Amino acid sequence: MRADLGVDAPISIRQEEADIASAECPDRRPWRRRWLEFGAPLRAATIIFLGIGIWAIFFGLWQIAVVMEWSPSILLPSPWAVLASLNDLFVNQGFTNDVIASVYRILVSFAAATILAVPLGILMGSFRAIEAFFNPLVSAWRYLPAPSFIPLLLMWFGTGDLQKLALLFIGVVWFLITLIADHTKAVRRELVETAMTLGAARRQILMTVIVPAVMPNIVVAMRQMLAVSWTYLVIAEIITSTDGIGAMMMRAKRFVRTDEIMAGIVTIGVLGLLFDFLFRALHRVLFPYLESSGE
To answer: What is the DSSP letter of 212?
Structure first.
């Protein structure tokens, strides 16, 4: 076994070493059969099985709680009742329009936040002077809870979509700027120094070295912050809103329709998973070299 190889050795070499160790120590299981090996890859079928398994356990516990009557049925409907309500919402109550309205607000507000956060975050992470100028403002806003601005936003923009878009924008933009700036700072200094040695101008270094190096992490940061944007959606839509998933949930609350409220929660969760899957697929398409290298 070669002792000079560390954790960054290719998987095939690490597997070969594990096989040798298994031969030397027969009681040890082969490397490829261990699920909890550090950094060990899993087959697609195993990943799907484990993912389905956790949801099966969750819904099983939920059904047990309903059968055991740990809570009144009006407060804790069964999973089947929630699914039935979800079907009724889409078929008979025009819930599709509410979903479209919510997705529109998420996409527009997040696009606006991205347009501001990506260039500003890259510049703050690249140049200390720009960071020193903007960071006090960005850091202060990051600690202000977005819902606290609702009274001001209502006075400034009224009860229309602009108020909701502004709340969703405020909820994510400052964190997204900080994440992108931190990822930009983490770009290997040797890359910048090599470009400087070759005589590249500052703009060339920024556009051809720093931006390509940090873009994979920017996509990851966007995926993470899009999840945060969904968490603010209900807050944005429960205030004087006539459409959207949050508005539907507030209407259900008036009539104590817990099954419809939980159907709205399930809808947000499914949409969040769908957008997360799309971002993962986008990451694989844009940066296939990272997937092939196992990063």
So the answer is: H
The rounded distance, in Å, linking the Cα atoms of 153 and 147 is 10
Average pLDDT for 266-285: 92
Please, are residues 170 and 203 in contact by the beta-carbon 8 Å criterion?
Answer: no
Contact 130, 124 (CB under 8 A): yes
Alpha-carbon gap, residue 132 to 115, rounded angstroms: 21
44-67 and 79-92 helices cross at what angle (nearest 10)?
Answer: 100
Euclidean distance between CA atoms 170 and 108, whole angstroms: 13
Distance CA 128, CA 185 (A): 10
> Is the torsion defined by CA of 250, 252, 257, 259 positive or negative?
negative
Cβ neighbours, 10 Å, residue 86: 19
Q: What per-residue confidence (pLDDT) applies to 35?
A: 63
Q: Is the pLDDT of residue 22 over 60?
A: no
For the stretch 203-262, pLDDT in tens is 999 999 999 999 999 999 999 999 999 989 888 888 777 888 988 998 888 888 899 999
Structure tokens at 32: 């490829």
Kindly report the pTM of this predicted structure: 0.80
d(CA 274, CA 270): 6
Token representation of residue 24:
């030397």
Report the pLDDT value the prediction gives residue 2, as an integer from 0 to 100: 45
| Residue 75 one-letter amino acid | L
Q: By the 8 A CB rule, do 153 and 98 touch?
A: no
Q: How many whole angstroms separate alpha carbon 288 and alpha carbon 284?
A: 5
Question: What's the rounded Cα separation, in Å, for the pair 31 and 12?
Answer: 11
Neighbours of 107 (CB within 10 A): 14
Encoded amino acid at 195, one letter: A
Instruction: Quick: pLDDT tens for 128-163.
Output: 999 999 999 999 998 988 888 988 998 998 888 899
